[in-house]
Amino acid sequence: CKFSVHTHCATQVELECPVSQELLMKAPRGMDPERGIGTVCEGWVKVPKPGGVKRGWTRHYAVVCDLKVFLYEFATDRASGTSIAHVFDIRDPNFSVSSVQESDVIHAPPRLIPSIFKISVTAHSTSDGTVLAHVLVLTDTEATKKYWLNILQELMRVLKAQKSLGGPTRFGCTQLYTAQQIDCMKIVHAADVVDSNHIVLAVDEGLFLVETPEATMIQIGERKAIVVEVMRKIMVIAAITGRNHHLRLYSLNALEGPDPENAAVKVDGTRGCVLMTTGFVTATNMAYVAVAIKRKILVYEVVSEMKSKATKIKEINVASTIHTMTGCDGNLAVGSSNDFTLYSVTEGDTAAIALVDRDDPGLSFVIHNPQALQCMACIELDPGMEYLLCFNVVGVFVSGGGCRSRPYDLNFPSSPQSIAYQAPYLLVCTVTSVEVYDTRNGDWMQSSPLKRCQVLNRQGTLMWCLGMEPPRVLHFMEEREDLEVNWPPARHVTLLSQKKRRIQVRFSMSSPDSIPTLSTKLGAGIRERGNADSWHGADEDPVSGVTVWQWFGVVLLCNRPATWETWVHL
Fold it and tell me: How far apart are CA 291 and CA 319, in angstroms?
């Protein structure tokens, strides 16, 4: 009968279809001003192509619903369906709509400018202020543009009158560093917060500890790092590093001690691991780290001393490929195929617990669609009592026994790229935005227009945003005074020290008389630095690339550009 209803109201609707005419008449038209839910208007519009206005416009379907503006993109291939291109939260404090001037759209034909308006929302904050995200919208006529502007401006007035609709909690996004401020930060694979003044970055060049107030950093690992987590209770950094993906442990106490070069401990038997998680068993006061290698999970107890020590306590075999793994107190929540399972990390043959009960009819869509659903994350809401199973299209609430625990689900607007949990809020990063859900009641709280974001740690407080140029590390947290990271002013980060690298340089030594054409070849000849007893240097040969240095009558030839520090090291 095409009767639409919110999931929260489904229990109040008649089970028979079609519903009665009386119920149809009671269905609200437009938005409920008390709760802010409902569809206000919808229609066809156009937005610029990714290359800008000069590249042309693409047709989108705009919907103003539940205090958000959705812009749906329709694919030319019918099988591809629709996807959400943009989501704008009207509750954003900086949300605004306005007409445009000719200077705002210099590549648009003059006849189209009266039909274009602009939507602006908060993107992120920097030391210089708030950065806004803008999207241009083209309507068919100028009258249609005025209609959309009137609708959105009226909603803004309703929000000011009904302050409760703004929500008690909002998340703010702060820029920490850009790829230009940290030379080694071309691609950030993972990161975590050590304390309010330090964060650790896992990049291709190694593992780096950044001191945020001073804008300095030290390199604590030379090998490529892809995963990193900080075990704060025992002050240990666990990371997957190296070409062969080994697990290494770095004691923070050893890094501050007299021998920081030997702070890392390579855990044997972990070659080829691709996933890692850490946890703490409250009952036995045990810290552990677990790694996944193909269809096998290895669990190690970690002891913090001046040098970390890992002892293997359990090996778990899984029937299919492991997609996600999360530590939940004394258990591991493992997602493989379209199923989630709880495994105990303590010694002994404790039976595994399936978190998807195949006898529960409310979970039949999960059981019978193994190809359509992909495991993304398992969130422990109430230890041992309730879990949130996140798939690529939906989040399902289940009990500790695997049965559906709530009558509603979390329906994601787009397929998540990554998921994090800041209790009690779920953060979902999609290609177009970052969505915030309240797991206590299932409400969709906030939508932030951060494109192509990837969470870097389990809590989602650190994110790597590729949708901006240059890419940057963002601090995404609930807006409050006690920020998790001490936010520094934007400036270049200085590398204080790093592990010594072996410099492979081929060079030869000879007398100046044996190469009489040296000055002729290099053109500029040998330049003097300092007094007669000090170093003398020469420019690089533009033909052969040879760098020449002269020292006390001996000429040193290097087959690649060399500096003063290089020769001192040799």
Answer: 16
Residue 262 tokens read as 């030997």
CA distance 410 to 497: 47
Structure tokens at 189: 């694979």
Listed in sequence order, the residues at least 6 apart from 188 whose beta carbon sits closer than 8 Å to its beta carbon are 201, 202, 203, 456, 464, 471, 473
CA distances from 378 to 97, 155, 338 (A): 39, 36, 12
SS3 36: coil
pLDDT tens for residues 401-429? 999 999 889 989 888 999 999 989 999 99
Give how far the C-alpha of residue 57 lies from the chain's centroid of Cα atoms, to the nearest Å: 30
Strands (E), 329-471: 331-336, 339-344, 353-354, 375-382, 386-391, 394-399, 410-411, 418-422, 425-429, 434-438, 443-448, 453-455, 462-465
What are phi and psi for residue 194, nearest 5 degrees? -85, -55
Q: What is the pTM of this model?
A: 0.78
pLDDT at 338 over 90: no
Residue (of 228, 221, 217) closest to 205 by Cα position = 221
CA distance 334 to 135: 40
For the chain, give the mean pLDDT. Answer: 80
Beta bridge partners of residue 271, listed in sequence order: none
105-126 pLDDT, tens digit each: 888 888 999 999 999 999 888 8
Q: How far apart are CA 161 and CA 427, in angstroms?
A: 29
Distance from C-alpha of 164 to C-alpha of 439, rounded to nearest angstrom: 19
